[in-house]
Prior knowledge:
The protein is an alpha/beta fold. Helices cover 35% and strands 22% of the residues. It has 14 helices and 22 strands. The strands form 4 sheets. Strands 1, 2, 3, 4, 5, 6 and 7 form a 7-stranded mixed sheet that branches. It is globular, with a radius of gyration of 23 Å. The model has no long low-confidence stretch (mean pLDDT 94).
Amino acid sequence: xxxxxxxxxxxxxxxxxxxxxxxxxxxxxxxxxxxxAAAFVDEVDAAxxxxxxxxxxxxxxPGFAAAFAAGAQARGANVVSIGLCSTDESYFASGHFDAPAxxxxxxxxxxxxxxxxxxxxxxxxxxxxxxLKAIRDRATEYLESGVIPVAVPxxxxxxxxxxxxxxxxxxxxxxxxIRPIRIVVDAGNGMGGLTVPAVLGxxxxxxxxxxxxxxxxxxxxxxxxxxxxxxxxxxxxxxxQKAVVDNGADLGLxxxxxxxxxxxxxxxxxxxxxxxxxxxxxxxxxxxxxxxQPEGDIxxxxxxxxxxxxxxxxxxxxxxxxxxxxxxxxxxxxxAETGAIFGGEHSAHYYFRDFWGADNGMLAAxxxxxxYGSQPGPLSTISKKYTPYALSGEINSTVEDIPxxxxxxxxxxxxxGEFDELDGxxxxxxVSADEPFWWxxxxxxxxxxxxxxxxxxxxxxxxxxxxxxxxxxxxxx
Length: 477
């Protein structure tokens, strides 16, 4: 297998809390990927069983997928290559075949990056604390000593699962009876250009839906020639907003590079907050489950920076909201532990019990289309209903001395609200005539000297006041 390294290689800088994400060539190389593959097979005990390998449209992805297959086969795994796919399509394959999986993508990051998202069988996540650290340590050893092949290497075969993936999603959300709608979809030259025509169109051989799709940037191109495939940044949805208005569309959808996150704009071109999407989908899922489960507790997860409308909607529908820390694998773990039917993050990740607890942006989009298409009003009316409070959005600040900034905030707000340290620091203001409802959360980044601020309040004026005060405290020298 690969020869031993001539010196120690530090994998720590690009093996993150939930996945592998690094610069192509200087951090991620075929040798590193081969070693990670061997380590992954060892960690999930995959010798003699199938391992699913998929990849996105980045120039480096096919080569890395091939290097991964070689390393996995050397340690005895039978590689099932599903080729070009979205991340949630790889989760589908992992869940459908009950097989571990590796997906090559750097999601919304620029073209110079690539990465790996690992899954245990059944699309179960792997975080740093639940296996990723062990994979890193084993891979480091393999890079130093070389990968040792097992006596019986694994096999390799290719399999196209796109049609089965599309059919499965159609079985979860019926869009056949909605009113005719026109939508603009911005795939950002990412994997949505492959999955949207299959799921919402007829490209996978499924019956046509009453949906007219106006495509933006559906060509798969890992150089991202039009804009970054990161709809969370407002500048990357400007083209979508304009196209919705220019085409008189009912709404617009934007997907990130690996198409596991979906963002929505209304008929006016205004962004719909991911929290509003989470509230709508949560209500739909609660209503659906209650039809077959009239008694008993129903749990729905939301992270602590979603709008308060999310837990309020969950409680009003008779379900139990479960508040969690921010983070992909944390939500997946909580989904499994609580048996929650749905989970929503303000980052536009949406998790479904009926999708093996994994996140699926396409499925969230389908729920939203079903909700919109089942009523006569414009999307802006729905958006307004589920956006009753003023939100700041996430604001990042580079801070050299994070503990000092944290202490300044604590000192300034002591006696003015309730403190919560579930994830960073959350302060909730008391409700009074002088202090209308507000809260803010300050969290340090796992990988950079950043503090992330989110603020919500009953009024725009209260939000602005709290936001500006906390930012002054964060950025004080």
